[in-house]
Design a protein that fits this description.
Radius of gyration: 14 Å
Helix content: 40-55%
Number of helices: 5
Bound molecules: iron/sulfur cluster
Largest sheet: 3 strands, mixed
């Protein structure tokens, strides 16, 4: 079975460096990434295998902040549009990495998504220029 990832996680997970909300979340996230590297990813809409172990996932909605459900949905749509992927499709980690690290995708993502992200300081995206 493919690990299931929503739009913005397809990009953000490329820059993961070991931080997360709690131990359960981090262990799960690392398992998902390892699995994705081996098998590839099934692109999904909404809750994915990362959200599944997140303390902010409540009744199928992201409750990280007051507006987070709308914000993450917006980021999902933006990510899928930049990556030219749709829910239901599968993609290898290698292909995904190539897409994410194309300059157009990365620049646009940094402009639109990273600037207001709380994880900016513990994310490798800042090291990529
Ligand atoms: S903060 Fe929201 S989008 Fe991020 S993993 Fe948790 S539930 Fe999912």
């Amino acid at each position: 079975m493919f690990p299931r990832l929503r739009g913005h996680h397809l990009i953000c997970l490329q820059f993961y460096r070991g931080e997360g909300y709690d131990e359960v979340f981090v262990e799960n996230l690392e398992r998902v990434i390892e699995d994705a590297k081996k098998r590839g990813v099934l692109v999904v809409e909404g809750v994915d295998d990362v959200c599944a172990k997140c303390p902010y996932m409540v009744n199928g909605k992201c409750k990280y902040s007051v507006n987070s459900e709308e914000e993450v949905k917006y980021l999902d749509v933006l990510a899928l549009s930049l990556l030219n992927l749709s829910p239901g499709c599968t993609v290898s980690w290698k292909e995904l990495k190539e897409k994410v690290f194309s300059p157009e995708v990365l620049e646009k993502w940094k402009e639109e998504a990273c600037k207001s992200c709380d994880w900016r300081d513990v994310c490798e995206v800042g090291d990529k220029g």
